[in-house]
Amino acid sequence: MNIKHLSPEKLNERRMQAVKLRLDGVTVALASQQTGLSAPTVSAAWKSFREGGWSAVPVRPRGRLKGQANVLDTATQQRLWEALYAHPPAEQPGWSSADLAAFLRNEHGVELTQRGIEHWWESEGLKHEPWPLSALAKQRSQRGRWYRQAVAPRFDRLEEANQRWQGGVRRVVHPQRPVYQLYLHGPRGRMWMRCFKRPPVADDYLTAMQALIGKSEESNRPVALVFHGAWLSASPQVTAWLSQQTMFWLVPVPADMGLAS
Amino acid sequence: MTSLTHLQRLEAESIQIMREVVAETENPVMLYSVGKDSAVMLHLARKAFAPSPPPFPLLHVDTRWKFRAMYDFRDNMAEEIGMDLLVHINPEGIEKDINPFTHGSAIHTDVMKTEGLKQALDKYGFDAAFGGARRDEEKSRAKERIFSFRTAQHRWDPKNQRPELWKLYNTRKNGKESIRVFPISNWTELDIWQYIYLQNIPIVPLYYAAERPVVERDGALIMVDDERMPLEPGEVPMMRKVRFRTLGCYPLTGAVESEADTLPAIIQEMLLTKTSERQGRVIDSDSAASMEKKKQEGYF
């Protein structure tokens, strides 16, 4: 019987009930039937009772207690912020969690997993989930029409996942610092980002886009970027750069498309 | 007898003021700035004189720098309600190409708004002008009477105002004096929004939150409404979900980041806000007591 859906409190109630039944002389099989617990669980509860009394019957609470989570120390957080505000590693469109982990390890001797960094992103409001663009293909809505007319004709011509990118820029509300985040999602939703203390300027966008082109140059394949959050066509610098690109397609997300998070 | 709600009391007071002005003055006009207060004023005026249209024209003192959505709304509204809409632009301002960027907000406001208003009032000989100012907007507006008398030169003397006890208004004036009348002076911003919601009054869409291209200028979010807005070198406008609590000339009006895209959401936001809508106006922070100074010189 699956008891994984039970809260620890409910599970403990049933374990206590099973022990009482066993004390009354009920068999393991019958106690299991009456409590909805599996026979091994009933036996385990009974064994715990015999070894440690009533206090040993309840299971330990699941997960970490509040406040026991691994929190990055202030110095490491400061280093991460400084990195995010600085230029990303060469040929990268931004900082990925792998890049940041390597940076901490190589520059500061701090061991931190990618997962740990992504948890920190989440706690700082930097985590951004990729939009489920392909799910729009069959939607009979404004978003669906936009996908079919603007995105699909480009994406369908690209064979590899690393040719299809999405990203944007947004202001992250942070209690201690000004944060303007330029984010990009590549293959399998992997995220690259760069942070700024002021709204990004044309050069910042172009650096990131150039890095995307650089990634595809090895295979000589074009790249498409679905981008949200900046009115790039208002910038003569960006417009001029885009007009020279033959291997880079920019698909701006129209206002109020409801894709931003 | 049933008691009136606070909005019904405010509505009744405003309607009484409008009828009083029409009864006591010869050539009134309603200043129409296309904002939410003007929308409420217009609605009240139509109610006050229904089934006839209000017996006065609308006057829009244009600066040529309002949001495009405001011009569209103004033109549609004038056509729909069938009232005379007078649009006045200071010809000297056009000639000198006065604008907020090269001349600054103070000169732009003085020439295009204050002088423009005075010119229009003189040109048409209006002796009373309804305005949509409210006491809660700004401190100099808080102390201005509902019937605010202006000299022949349109100047306001805050130290020489008439008492308005028990809602009795003294409308007597000397030959060349004029009156600025503020029927919604006692309303708050929240009252305005509740009234708009209850009466289903159309307003400019800029009041609702939407993604709009904005740039940051001295901490204010300024919408890039047309190609006249000069961008800094390399600057790229960001698309942010913003709305406007107050509307004026677009380079001088700051937006606020908001998710309120419906009237109930705006009202809910109003219930939590602790700042005046006028904080979004660059012209109000020109200098200390600038609004009072501008009003003394004839600003609305």
UniProtKB/TrEMBL annotation, chain B:
InterPro entries reported for this sequence: PAPS_reduct_dom, Rossmann-like_a/b/a_fold, SO4_adenylTrfase_ssu, Sulfate_adenylyltrnsfr_sub2
Domain Phosphoadenosine phosphosulphate reductase: from-to ranges: 27-254
Similarity comment: family membership: Belongs to the PAPS reductase family. CysD subfamily.
Transmembrane residue ranges: none
Keyword Cell membrane assigned: no
SUPFAM superfamilies noted in UniProt: Adenine nucleotide alpha hydrolases-like
Protein name per UniProt: Sulfate adenylyltransferase subunit 2
Recorded metabolic or biological pathway in which this protein acts: Sulfur metabolism; hydrogen sulfide biosynthesis; sulfite from sulfate: step 1/3
EC identifiers of the protein: 2.7.7.4
Superkingdom of origin: Bacteria
Quaternary structure annotation from Swiss-Prot or TrEMBL: Heterodimer composed of CysD, the smaller subunit, and CysN.
One Pfam entry name: PAPS_reduct
Record GO terms (molecular function): sulfate adenylyltransferase (ATP) activity
Record function comment: With CysN forms the ATP sulfurylase (ATPS) that catalyzes the adenylation of sulfate producing adenosine 5'-phosphosulfate (APS) and diphosphate, the first enzymatic step in sulfur assimilation pathway. APS synthesis involves the formation of a high-energy phosphoric-sulfuric acid anhydride bond driven by GTP hydrolysis by CysN coupled to ATP hydrolysis by CysD.
Taxonomic lineage: Bacteria, Pseudomonadati, Pseudomonadota, Gammaproteobacteria, Oceanospirillales
Catalyses which reaction(s): sulfate + ATP + H(+) = adenosine 5'-phosphosulfate + diphosphate
Keyword terms of this UniProt record: ATP-binding, Nucleotide-binding, Nucleotidyltransferase, Transferase
